Amino acid sequence: MTHSKMTREEFAAFDAADPLASFRSEFELPEDVIYLDGNSLGPLPRIARERVAACVTHEWGNGLIRSWNDAGWIDLPTRVGGKIGALIGAEADSVVAADSTSVNLFKCLSAALALRPDRCVIVSEESNFPTDLYMAEGLSALLGGRHELRLIEDPNELPDALKDDVAVLMLTHVNYRTGYMHDMKAVTDAARAAGALTLWDLAHSAGAVPVDLATAKADFAVGCGYKYLNGGPGAPAFLYVAPRHQEAASQPLTGWFAHKAPFAFDHRFAPTDGIGKFLCGTPPVLAMTALDAAMDIWARADMDAVRAISVALTESFITLVEERCAGLGLTLASPRNAEHRGSQVSFAHENGYPVMQALIARGVIGDFRAPDLLRFGFTPLYTRFTDIWDAVEHLRDILETSSWDQPEFHARAAVT
Amino acid sequence: MTHSKMTREEFAAFDAADPLASFRSEFELPEDVIYLDGNSLGPLPRIARERVAACVTHEWGNGLIRSWNDAGWIDLPTRVGGKIGALIGAEADSVVAADSTSVNLFKCLSAALALRPDRCVIVSEESNFPTDLYMAEGLSALLGGRHELRLIEDPNELPDALKDDVAVLMLTHVNYRTGYMHDMKAVTDAARAAGALTLWDLAHSAGAVPVDLATAKADFAVGCGYKYLNGGPGAPAFLYVAPRHQEAASQPLTGWFAHKAPFAFDHRFAPTDGIGKFLCGTPPVLAMTALDAAMDIWARADMDAVRAISVALTESFITLVEERCAGLGLTLASPRNAEHRGSQVSFAHENGYPVMQALIARGVIGDFRAPDLLRFGFTPLYTRFTDIWDAVEHLRDILETSSWDQPEFHARAAVT
After folding, report:
1. How many C-beta atoms surround the C-beta of residue A20 within 10 A?
2. pTM above 0.90, yes or no
3. Is A35 in CB contact (< 8 Å) with chain B?
4. Other CB atoms within 10 Å distance of the CB of residue A300
């Protein structure tokens, strides 16, 4: 893609032609901010603010305990799960919203390992989002240490890693640092051919790129509610279990919401049928309500259109940075080929941390990932092409005019 | 306690003398409701409504990702945990707010079992809240089934059950059905004498009765944020680990928030020091904010005063029901001795379900627990003595005037 001598007017024209442009007004976005961090925390949907307020004031305040039935709180995990499922190509009744991504990964990984009792290897990537690896480590220790976590350093090592001892291939579809995107169907096919089950983390995929779990024949998936889905800080996460596994699968966090008859208060556990057996405790209603509201925006967003604009945004950003910030020390750290890239772009810079701090001070919010990555998320529902233009101008100005005293990286960075 | 010929005027005088009366105005309570179900879902504190609105609008909407640091979201689990800890006699830095009660019980039970590797029995009560038993069952299966769940039917069986094979005594301090309250210190002493660790569920204790974990030398505890604490529907739960165990203890849900340096994104897990290692995934900020606000009310409530009023409320209720509803088929199902009773009272009635439905239709909200229990919670921060008087009048009127056609119990009952 060549856009030499691109102009801001050209970018404004892209905005004017953007079929998704009307979505932007559905979000609260501070006027002095260019927000390129929706891959970390999605902004506030106006409808979420309204629905949370109504939930607090009317459902909790006035309805009190009656709202479990009258306001449908009891069904939130499956109702919200169904909305998420529709966005990620899941079959009906195969997704629930619940707990955190970490906890859901624990459930799914436990279930997957139990379905492959004769195999003891979990394959993943060293560059996977750490909590996924940590949870696998914790589960493995709990199971007595007989499982091996086989970490590859590069996706090209996958074929070699998928030996006949692999129980589960556990991958994040889109890498949190680089935005590298696996070919979900091809990788799932390869895993299945090796007799392994797949567990996909869709934290940087749901609402970012088209996902079709059913077509890919994925086995399990988990994902995050607070990034591209805009469900609010620490929003409930979700999990997917392919319908073909739901009868045989079981998970160890057998809380009362997974029970066949939770209000019979039987002292023995008996799992409910279907995806509900992957629930655990009482759902966080306020948080779930915000996510539920956000999903009603997604119900009107065509993911192919989102992807088309996402690719145009990331392509434009890469081209513009390389054109206007040439010679200023930035190196593309994301795949250049859009086919292999999610909806984010990272550039390495030796002074990445202070550069990002300077950008944030000017209201251009991306984030930094050690040791040297400037990370920018592109979210077509509200990111404008002119935002990108302006962000790159700030970046260029900072790089041209600042000197760096190598401040130490602050470990209390923003939450991915 | 004898109050024969009690009058409503007498109850109004109790209200007038109630040292906690001013707290009532801090809660939203519908005018047409007498709410005796705060042991299931606490009502909305006005401050929680304000703080959630501010969190949504300003922290999320305007602060965006910056609020993880600027608004202190990152510290919510320990900050809220500290406030809860102060209410339950916990040492500093020994409580976190996180996840659900079920998930927290899984963490604590795992940790406790690992500290007693040579013992394979978990003792609990058949009448314990089911999710606790279910989680123990799930964990036990995951550990290969070598643990036995030894359930007693009556607290008197405890001494016999505490043999030298017991790893963990897992009890709910106040029973969810009957309100029976264990003597935490005596039972913990007995468990320790038998070489067992204790894991207390404080779901019906925190904010209901004085709890002093440190003095009792409890080992682990979990509890619920949405009942007496008024943290909102499905509020985050909490867990306690005695400081003396924190270094040796580990838990298997090793998510990134339990990591020593979560933002270093190391691919190997290394637990943080102290109670933080019992965290797991990203905290649910909106839900945590509501609980945080509610805890600021508790910071001003003296638990001895709360207990004194609670006992007066439950005693008055029992006396009044037995006086005014005599001969109408009610049998006290809670301990008659206040020393052994939490802050709720249950009466059995053969038509318990339709009786409770009739009460709720009149705005007197308690709840029903199969097969025959009418359950009423008493919450001194907002329950008035005159509420009790009026509730009992409704109960009497219903019992005297209604006939029952034995409608089937609806399994979709309210969430405890």
Report:
1. 17
2. yes
3. yes
4. 10
